[in-house]
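Technical appendix A lists one of the benchmark inputs used to test multi-chain prediction within the project. The record comprises two sequence entries:
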Amino acid sequence: MSNFKKRKHDSKTGETRLRLGMQHDDFRNAAHTLVDRIIDYHKTVSERQTFPNVKPGFMRSLVPDQAPEDAENWPEVFSEIEEVVMKGLTHWFSSGFFGFYATAGSYPSMLGELLTSAIGSIGFSWLSSPSSTELETVMLDWLAKALDLPKFYLHNGTGPGGGVIQGTASESTLVTLLSARDKAIRPQLSIDPNQCRHDINKRLVAYTSNVSNSSVEKAGKIAFVDLKLLESDEMGSLRGKTLLDAIKEDKKNGRIPFYVCATLGTTACCSFDNLEEIEPICEKEGIWLHIDAAYAGSALLCPEFRFIAKGLECSTSFNFNPHKGMMVNLDCSALWFKDSSHVINAMNVNPIYLRHEEMGRAIDYMHWQIPLGRRFRTIKLWFVLRMVGLDGLRNHVRRGIAEAKHLEELVKTDERYEILFPVVLGLVCFRLKPELLGNKIANDENEKLYEAIHHDRRFFITPASVGGKYLIRISTGSLNCSTAKLDEFWKVTREITDKLLTKNKFTI
Amino acid sequence: MSNFKKRKHDSKTGETRLRLGMQHDDFRNAAHTLVDRIIDYHKTVSERQTFPNVKPGFMRSLVPDQAPEDAENWPEVFSEIEEVVMKGLTHWFSSGFFGFYATAGSYPSMLGELLTSAIGSIGFSWLSSPSSTELETVMLDWLAKALDLPKFYLHNGTGPGGGVIQGTASESTLVTLLSARDKAIRPQLSIDPNQCRHDINKRLVAYTSNVSNSSVEKAGKIAFVDLKLLESDEMGSLRGKTLLDAIKEDKKNGRIPFYVCATLGTTACCSFDNLEEIEPICEKEGIWLHIDAAYAGSALLCPEFRFIAKGLECSTSFNFNPHKGMMVNLDCSALWFKDSSHVINAMNVNPIYLRHEEMGRAIDYMHWQIPLGRRFRTIKLWFVLRMVGLDGLRNHVRRGIAEAKHLEELVKTDERYEILFPVVLGLVCFRLKPELLGNKIANDENEKLYEAIHHDRRFFITPASVGGKYLIRISTGSLNCSTAKLDEFWKVTREITDKLLTKNKFTI
């Protein structure tokens, strides 16, 4: 019989176990062992195999098929962190992890997550947790100033603008698309209130580039609006003329262009839509311009990288992920509206059990997002901004970009490879030259190269396809990334290439 | 000049600070002080004022208006937890918190959140973090078995069913509505591929009761489908006849009924839609039946409360929040599909940079949810299920319900008040009797009572309105709720009522 059963009705300490799941002192001891384990993990994570040797279904043999009746003790659970969790983990914090875009994390952020869970307040309305709402508004102003965003995005500005933390960039895009949809439909209904909103929605059309993140396309599906993936140019950039042609054609056909999602730092190849060309068009046509800078936004901390966002002044909403480039753990995606009334109009359903006496005088973030519930995510952001400081964060950003520049130079030393897009921030896209392989496309060969590196298991990488070209993308700047590790990666890549070429593996 | 600046290029330890935001040893020390602080908070939280004396905008004077350039040290940040965060907090874990529905939390869950942030892996696809995906499938099976859900919801069952963790019940409802919308449109398009999907969507109609959570209505807005709020009966329950009448009427008008969201444990009054009447109708009509048991689901851990879910066997999807009744911190909302292919069909956009060689053989949870990114939230669920055990969780559920029964008895001792809905789980809805006030409605008087209790600040409560009746709702079962505290609450409520009656405050 477990301790829990023995103690549960006994005493004050038994009461603690019943309510909090553990005694206070047991929690203290457990937390100490866990903290030691976490430090050890971070000291040695790069010695682990970045991607595990497991196959789908491996977990079933490691874990019982039902929950225990009686409480187990911490030492039992603790020992299985290695055997169960670590066994099949992709180690995103390993120095050999170059996949997707690096995720963020830091000790101050972990402390923040711990405090957030200990407080447990749910900040959907101002009433439900005033500190949560208010610290969030101040932190979003801190961020906006640190990135030198237009003043209209400040809560403390003169207008109706302001920022909010979303879980992910996907949600940020969706929320802005829904806001823009509502904003586009209202005036049509005011012209003729008898119109069916479905008939108006049918006429709406949104745009993004065909290199945008898949979450933009997904947002279009969810919002049930027609979203066109416009052709980007050979640099992976959406150009003004392409957008303008699409708008003209659609307007000719009675459609209502209402939303553009432009990307700074695409997922596939870290390309940049041409804001300077796009913005005057959106402004003239009254189209909502959302900037998805999920990845690239953190670079705006550094003045020398702000050229990527030239033309930002005319945007309607702006999003970036501190959980990508700013040492804050997922989930922390920062989203700003030039005019927050649009999102509130689109999302507000206001039952009496959520109303309060400060309504209208205070922000209720539940109307700025999809879910009702929201964690107090600002604490980790507050901890990181203070305990790392803006200067420290800029160094973090610069380190990641310098690493990419370093790899770029390495790739250039071997004529068999080519760099496919300019290395502007922390992403290098390369492939084996088709000429080398006597092949105009060489996608299959480059896919074989990707697979060989993936199966070698020393590094975790991800491929992409842009403009019909298969490429290998290396994301730098993760917690433990280093030029030394990139040297090693490049050595291994060349060796694997040699083998593939020797063995004629590339003959299809 | 901060330590950070001094150390950053110096040595190996300086490197740690640059990458992780703190030295390893500083993190250990900081974590220890934070853990002590958390224990102290939980020991004394009920001595704090549940809702703070703050007004909108209070935070601006407590926090600088921009982020620091240089890194600050932990002691500076730590000291402001009290001055900034606690200053304006609604203490959801206080024994005097009876608002909304209680949120969950426990020491094992906090340990889980800490480990999740330390690992930092993002589990959108199987490849991106196999352990994250696989432990989630096993934990959702554990939960389904513990709640005695139909077998078709098991991953390890024979069919295409399975569960997933969503952030909130709002997202669960939305995801099922989107899945059902897609499932309803596809066959229409296969009859006539030239049909416009907007014209089909226009014909779709979804139903829920007018006592459902506001997030259901919000999901309808987001998904851009017509969602009808059907009249519940005097017990706050959606009845079969009401639904059937609506369906018949809509079909007569050429509409396509496709989705019903039935609630077990409504937010306003913990009422229960009549599943036994609703299910055969949905089955006959081929309508997707989603069960929102966000609050009440945890009660299914206990066999004696399973009568509330009679008729569950015919549902299409089922959702409940372990972060409400099961000692797991927000966010942890469990959602099951009878056939997961529908959600994948509705949500899948599959760019090459997210593809992998195990696709089709493994679950990619990104296709089961709105966002792309997802935290490794299963760890806290796994910790709680093991370290509390099913027996412990059942005791936790029973304690909260017994507290509500206790308050119900107290209310019944004073003839001035009436209980408005049966006390089935951990919610008591009461009001001052209209007869007492010589008033047929007495909504204003009861609102005054609510406001007086709220401004007294000893307890945090929330009101609701059901069937035109304003009521005060008391949610029990929170971490530190107790019958002693409910005695105190009832004493204060009676005293406040006495004062209001004496002072003729109720004369309007």
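Chain B has three domains: 3-91, 122-376, 386-502. The two ends of chain B are 64 Å apart (CA to CA). Comparable benchmark entries are summarised in Table A2.
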